Amino acid sequence: MKKLFFIPASLLLACVIAASSAFVYLKYFHLSGWIHNGPWNTNLSMGTSDTGIYDKAWTAMFSALSPSNVNVYYKVYTDDNGEPLHSSCDYLIQGEALDTRWWSLTVYMEDGFLIPNPQKRYSWNKYNAEFNDDGSFLINLSSQQQEGNWIPLADYLGKLSMTLRLYHPGQMFYDKPESVALPKITKENCS
Fold first, then answer.
1. What is the pTM of this model?
2. Are residues 13 and 85 in the same domain?
3. In a shared domain, residues 14 and 46
4. Which pLDDT tens digit goes with each residue over 57-81?
5. Which of 12, 20, 48, 123 lies at a C-alpha separation of 20 to 30 Å from 5?
6. 168's torsion region: left (phi>0), alpha (psi -120 to 50) or beta?
7. Which structural domain, as residue segments, surrounds residue 22?
8. Strand bridging mode 137-142 / 150-152
9. How many domains would you assign to the chain?
Protein backbone atom coordinates (compact mmCIF):
# COMPACT_ATOMS: atom_id res chain seq x y z
CA MET A 1 0.00 0.00 0.00
CA LYS A 2 2.86 2.36 0.78
CA LYS A 3 4.24 1.83 -2.74
CA LEU A 4 0.95 2.96 -4.26
CA PHE A 5 1.32 6.25 -2.41
CA PHE A 6 5.11 6.58 -2.78
CA ILE A 7 5.27 6.31 -6.60
CA PRO A 8 2.67 9.01 -7.42
CA ALA A 9 4.03 11.27 -4.67
CA SER A 10 7.56 10.88 -6.07
CA LEU A 11 6.38 11.66 -9.60
CA LEU A 12 4.48 14.72 -8.38
CA LEU A 13 7.50 15.97 -6.42
CA ALA A 14 9.76 15.45 -9.47
CA CYS A 15 7.37 17.45 -11.67
CA VAL A 16 7.18 20.28 -9.15
CA ILE A 17 10.97 20.43 -8.83
CA ALA A 18 11.44 20.33 -12.62
CA ALA A 19 8.85 23.04 -13.28
CA SER A 20 10.20 25.26 -10.49
CA SER A 21 13.81 24.96 -11.61
CA ALA A 22 12.82 25.67 -15.25
CA PHE A 23 10.88 28.76 -14.16
CA VAL A 24 13.78 30.08 -12.07
CA TYR A 25 16.25 29.41 -14.90
CA LEU A 26 14.09 31.15 -17.48
CA LYS A 27 13.33 34.17 -15.30
CA TYR A 28 16.75 34.81 -13.79
CA PHE A 29 19.50 32.95 -15.65
CA HIS A 30 18.44 32.64 -19.27
CA LEU A 31 21.05 34.57 -21.22
CA SER A 32 21.94 32.47 -24.28
CA GLY A 33 21.66 34.32 -27.56
CA TRP A 34 20.90 37.68 -25.97
CA ILE A 35 22.65 40.72 -27.44
CA HIS A 36 23.30 43.76 -25.26
CA ASN A 37 23.26 47.38 -26.45
CA GLY A 38 23.75 49.54 -23.37
CA PRO A 39 20.89 48.59 -21.04
CA TRP A 40 18.81 47.26 -23.96
CA ASN A 41 18.69 43.52 -24.80
CA THR A 42 17.50 41.64 -27.87
CA ASN A 43 17.60 38.11 -29.22
CA LEU A 44 17.43 37.85 -33.01
CA SER A 45 16.72 34.11 -32.97
CA MET A 46 13.37 34.60 -31.21
CA GLY A 47 10.47 33.63 -33.44
CA THR A 48 12.67 31.81 -35.96
CA SER A 49 13.28 28.12 -36.61
CA ASP A 50 16.65 28.55 -34.84
CA THR A 51 14.92 29.25 -31.52
CA GLY A 52 15.88 26.77 -28.84
CA ILE A 53 13.52 25.15 -26.36
CA TYR A 54 14.39 27.56 -23.52
CA ASP A 55 13.96 30.59 -25.80
CA LYS A 56 10.52 29.32 -26.82
CA ALA A 57 9.61 28.76 -23.18
CA TRP A 58 10.87 32.24 -22.22
CA THR A 59 8.81 33.83 -25.01
CA ALA A 60 5.72 31.92 -23.91
CA MET A 61 6.16 32.94 -20.26
CA PHE A 62 7.42 36.52 -20.46
CA SER A 63 6.67 38.01 -23.88
CA ALA A 64 3.30 39.04 -25.28
CA LEU A 65 4.51 38.76 -28.87
CA SER A 66 7.29 36.88 -30.55
CA PRO A 67 9.88 38.61 -32.73
CA SER A 68 10.34 37.30 -36.25
CA ASN A 69 12.37 38.02 -39.34
CA VAL A 70 10.45 41.28 -39.97
CA ASN A 71 10.73 42.84 -36.52
CA VAL A 72 13.22 43.31 -33.71
CA TYR A 73 12.34 43.78 -30.05
CA TYR A 74 14.59 45.32 -27.43
CA LYS A 75 13.80 44.89 -23.71
CA VAL A 76 15.20 47.02 -20.89
CA TYR A 77 15.01 46.70 -17.10
CA THR A 78 17.57 49.34 -16.04
CA ASP A 79 18.45 52.94 -16.85
CA ASP A 80 21.69 53.92 -18.60
CA ASN A 81 23.54 53.75 -15.25
CA GLY A 82 22.48 50.13 -14.71
CA GLU A 83 20.01 50.95 -11.92
CA PRO A 84 16.67 49.07 -12.02
CA LEU A 85 13.76 51.05 -13.45
CA HIS A 86 11.31 51.83 -10.64
CA SER A 87 8.04 53.75 -10.57
CA SER A 88 9.18 55.89 -7.63
CA CYS A 89 11.50 57.70 -10.08
CA ASP A 90 10.94 59.94 -13.09
CA TYR A 91 12.79 59.11 -16.32
CA LEU A 92 13.58 60.95 -19.52
CA ILE A 93 13.83 58.73 -22.58
CA GLN A 94 15.69 60.45 -25.43
CA GLY A 95 15.85 58.89 -28.87
CA GLU A 96 17.08 59.72 -32.33
CA ALA A 97 15.12 59.06 -35.50
CA LEU A 98 14.93 55.25 -35.81
CA ASP A 99 15.48 53.57 -39.18
CA THR A 100 12.32 51.50 -39.19
CA ARG A 101 8.93 51.52 -40.86
CA TRP A 102 7.21 51.64 -37.45
CA TRP A 103 8.30 51.59 -33.81
CA SER A 104 6.67 51.73 -30.39
CA LEU A 105 7.96 52.10 -26.84
CA THR A 106 5.77 50.50 -24.15
CA VAL A 107 6.21 50.50 -20.35
CA TYR A 108 5.20 47.54 -18.17
CA MET A 109 4.84 46.71 -14.50
CA GLU A 110 7.11 44.04 -13.02
CA ASP A 111 4.50 41.34 -13.73
CA GLY A 112 4.48 42.24 -17.44
CA PHE A 113 1.11 44.00 -17.46
CA LEU A 114 0.42 47.56 -18.57
CA ILE A 115 0.25 50.24 -15.87
CA PRO A 116 -3.41 51.22 -15.33
CA ASN A 117 -3.84 54.99 -15.55
CA PRO A 118 -6.76 57.41 -16.14
CA GLN A 119 -5.15 58.71 -19.37
CA LYS A 120 -5.02 55.17 -20.84
CA ARG A 121 -1.53 56.01 -22.11
CA TYR A 122 0.83 53.02 -22.17
CA SER A 123 3.17 53.75 -25.06
CA TRP A 124 4.24 56.11 -27.80
CA ASN A 125 5.02 55.22 -31.40
CA LYS A 126 6.33 56.62 -34.66
CA TYR A 127 2.95 58.03 -35.64
CA ASN A 128 1.59 59.53 -32.43
CA ALA A 129 4.69 60.89 -30.64
CA GLU A 130 5.77 64.52 -30.88
CA PHE A 131 9.18 64.94 -32.55
CA ASN A 132 11.87 67.59 -32.68
CA ASP A 133 12.81 69.07 -36.07
CA ASP A 134 15.72 66.61 -36.41
CA GLY A 135 13.44 63.59 -35.89
CA SER A 136 14.55 62.99 -32.30
CA PHE A 137 12.02 62.51 -29.51
CA LEU A 138 11.68 62.85 -25.73
CA ILE A 139 9.36 60.67 -23.66
CA ASN A 140 8.71 61.41 -19.98
CA LEU A 141 7.99 58.53 -17.65
CA SER A 142 6.52 59.95 -14.43
CA SER A 143 3.74 59.77 -11.86
CA GLN A 144 3.30 63.55 -12.21
CA GLN A 145 1.71 64.99 -15.35
CA GLN A 146 4.26 66.14 -17.94
CA GLU A 147 4.04 68.11 -21.18
CA GLY A 148 4.50 66.35 -24.51
CA ASN A 149 5.14 62.63 -24.74
CA TRP A 150 4.26 61.39 -21.24
CA ILE A 151 3.65 57.86 -19.99
CA PRO A 152 1.94 58.08 -16.60
CA LEU A 153 2.95 55.72 -13.81
CA ALA A 154 -0.22 56.58 -11.85
CA ASP A 155 -0.34 54.92 -8.41
CA TYR A 156 1.74 51.88 -9.33
CA LEU A 157 4.70 51.26 -7.03
CA GLY A 158 7.26 48.72 -8.21
CA LYS A 159 9.84 47.76 -10.81
CA LEU A 160 9.35 48.58 -14.48
CA SER A 161 10.43 47.28 -17.85
CA MET A 162 10.15 48.70 -21.36
CA THR A 163 9.91 47.13 -24.77
CA LEU A 164 11.01 48.89 -27.95
CA ARG A 165 9.35 47.21 -30.94
CA LEU A 166 10.80 47.85 -34.39
CA TYR A 167 8.81 46.66 -37.41
CA HIS A 168 10.66 46.36 -40.72
CA PRO A 169 13.83 47.98 -39.32
CA GLY A 170 16.88 48.89 -41.38
CA GLN A 171 19.54 46.26 -42.02
CA MET A 172 21.83 47.61 -39.26
CA PHE A 173 19.39 46.32 -36.62
CA TYR A 174 20.11 42.80 -37.93
CA ASP A 175 23.80 43.23 -38.76
CA LYS A 176 24.91 45.22 -35.68
CA PRO A 177 22.09 45.13 -33.10
CA GLU A 178 24.63 45.74 -30.33
CA SER A 179 25.73 49.11 -31.70
CA VAL A 180 22.73 50.83 -33.32
CA ALA A 181 21.61 54.06 -31.65
CA LEU A 182 18.83 53.26 -29.17
CA PRO A 183 17.00 55.63 -26.81
CA LYS A 184 18.89 56.83 -23.73
CA ILE A 185 17.18 56.36 -20.35
CA THR A 186 18.08 59.00 -17.76
CA LYS A 187 16.78 59.02 -14.21
CA GLU A 188 15.58 62.54 -13.39
CA ASN A 189 14.61 62.23 -9.70
CA CYS A 190 13.03 59.83 -7.20
CA SER A 191 10.44 60.30 -4.48
1. 0.78
2. no
3. no
4. 655 555 555 556 688 999 999 999 9
5. 20
6. left
7. 1-30
8. parallel
9. 2
